Automatic annotation (TrEMBL):
Protein name, per record: Cytochrome c oxidase
PANTHER family assigned to the protein according to its UniProt record, in alphabetical order: CYTOCHROME BO(3) UBIQUINOL OXIDASE SUBUNIT 4
GO terms for cellular component: cytochrome o ubiquinol oxidase complex; plasma membrane
Superkingdom of origin: Bacteria
Keyword check for Cell inner membrane: no
BP terms from Gene Ontology: aerobic electron transport chain; electron transport coupled proton transport
Assigned protein family: Belongs to the cytochrome c oxidase bacterial subunit 4 family.
Keywords tagged on the record: Cell membrane, Membrane, Transmembrane, Transmembrane helix
GO molecular function: cytochrome bo3 ubiquinol oxidase activity; proton transmembrane transporter activity
């Protein structure tokens, strides 16, 4: 192996593989499908209200995780601190909601 080939091999070996737009397009299409399903479920009108609320909540949670993972890139390495801060924020917000409900009802 010549010096030039060895240098090219090292460059190729150390490059980061980019994700490309394929996964973003798939996630975008999946988000559109979830949104259409949500609108169709509510527009149908004859669907049980409890089922509709549960379905909407599940689809909303799926969309949040997809958007955090792919659009906000939290699935990549080096994003531990933002994830921890968001978890702490959800904990504080959840605690505030629970305490407000407790304060109002008891």
């Amino acid at each position: 192996m010549s010096v030039d080939q060895h240098a090219d091999h090292d460059v190729i070996k150390h490059r980061h593989r980019s994700e490309g737009p394929q996964k973003h397009i798939i996630v975008f299409i999946f988000s559109i499908i979830l949104t259409v399903i949500a609108f169709a479920t509510v527009a149908a009108g004859g669907v049980n209200a409890t089922f509709t609320v549960i379905l909407l909540l599940i689809m909303a949670i799926l969309q949040v995780f997809m958007q955090l993972g792919y659009w906000m890139h939290l699935k990549d390495k080096g994003h531990l601190m933002p994830i921890l801060f968001m978890i702490f924020g959800f904990f504080v917000a959840g605690t505030a909601v629970i305490m407000a409900l407790y304060w109002v009802w008891w």
